[in-house]
């Protein structure tokens, strides 16, 4: 499947990925959206800022928010160094 070839969750080990099928992705989106609705009361027209590094998990959360009809603002997180976990200084 195309999705399996393009989407993967990085496990923290360089080069190691866990592949996800369309069906698995749909299940995760449904699970996340259900949790957001029940725990936080999110529904069509709610407003949410989504902060995080670009990743498979971020994509699934964004799709779950879209499924609920939430107005989403995507916020960029400060870049982190892959091995030390420290953030780079923000110019300004």
Helix vs. strand class: alpha+beta
The helix fraction, in percent, is 40-55%
CATH architecture: 3-Layer(aba) Sandwich
CATH class: Alpha Beta
The CATH topology is what?
Rossmann fold
Please state the CA-atom Rg, rounded to the nearest Å: 15 Å
Distance between the termini: 43 Å
Per DSSP, what share of the residues sits in E-state strands of 2 or more residues?
Answer: 15-25%
Which regions have little confidence, pLDDT < 50, spanning 5+ residues?
1-8
| Strand order, sheet with most strands | 1-2
- Compressed to H and E, one letter per element, the order equals HEEHEHE
Largest sheet: 2 strands, antiparallel
Q: What's the number of helices?
A: 3
Average pLDDT taken over every residue: 77
Q: Tell me the number of structural domains.
A: 1
How many runs of DSSP E, i.e. beta strands?
A: 4
Protein traits:
Rossmann fold; disordered N terminus; two-stranded parallel ribbon; alpha+beta; 92 residues; two-stranded antiparallel ribbon; flat; 3 helices
Description of the molecule:
- The protein is α+β, with helices and mostly antiparallel strands.
- It has a single domain (2-9, 16-76), classed as Rossmann fold, CATH 3.40.50.
- Helices cover 40% and strands 20% of the residues.
- It is built from 3 helices and 4 strands, in the order αββαβαβ.
- It has helices at residues 2-6, 22-40, 56-68; strands spanning 8-10, 17-19, 47-52, 71-76.
- Strands 1-2 form a two-stranded antiparallel sheet. The protein has a two-stranded parallel sheet with strand order 3-4.
- α3 links the parallel β3 and β4.
- α2 (22-40) packs across α3.
- The protein is flat and about 40 Å long.
- The N and C termini lie far apart (43 Å).
- Mean pLDDT is 77; it is low at 1-8.
């Amino acid at each position: 499947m195309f999705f399996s070839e393009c989407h993967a969750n990085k496990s923290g080990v360089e080069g190691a990925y866990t592949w996800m099928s369309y069906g698995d992705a749909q299940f995760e989106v449904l699970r996340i959206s259900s949790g957001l609705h029940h725990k936080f009361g999110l529904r069509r027209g709610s407003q949410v800022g989504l902060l995080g590094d670009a990743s498979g998990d971020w994509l699934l959360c964004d799709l779950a928010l879209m499924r609920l009809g939430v107005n989403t603002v995507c916020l960029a997180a400060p870049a982190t160094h892959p091995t030390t976990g420290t953030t780079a200084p923000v110019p300004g």
